[in-house]
Amino acid sequence: MTEEESRIPPLTYYCYQSVYAHIDRLSSLGRLPYKLIKPVLFAVDADTLKHLEQGYDDWQRNEYLDPTDGPEAVSLYASASRSVPVSWRDEYFALTTERQNAVSRASDRVSRFRVAQETDQRKAKLVHDLPPTRRRGNNPLHSIINPAFRKVVADTRKMSIAAPNQQAVHKPYPMPNFRPPSTMPIRTEPTHQSRSKGSPHPRSSQSTLFIPKSRP
Predict the structure, then answer these.
(1) By residue range, what is the domain housing residue 29?
(2) Where are the compositionally biased (Pro residues) regions (predicted)?
């Protein structure tokens, strides 16, 4: 045993201190060995000691005075359910380990519940953000949240519906056939021989040919 461990008082010391603090209210000691309660009997007054002796007569027997000494101790431990007593330190560490395991299991359950809750929230958000399915008779403009954008879409739709009617009422004017800027007219006159032969048509009509203008 090290010096630090020797400074730690035993468990019986704290038990005696608790009994001494409430010794005035002591009414019974139960079936405790005489060797264990001997310091308590020396600390009580005469009236309390008489009351304790009248309440428990086993103290008068010789085999009860000190059963932990001699051959009585062997028979006592042999008749017990456990042949080897369990250390309270082992019990304490076992309970501490069990408590830590319980806390770990509880924290794992809370973590799994939180992850499941966040997953459900994300699913609900995705479902809420999706546009509604277009049904027959359903106006798709109701799915647009911005009122200004909704108004623009409605006006555009009205203009697209009214455009064919406007074209039927106001027909565009026919465009004139303009001469291409890259052509120039050339007039041709009938020859002298065709004039002298006395044809029924002494003078043919003028013809206009469009010859592409050569570029410089």
Answers:
(1) 3-85
(2) 173-183
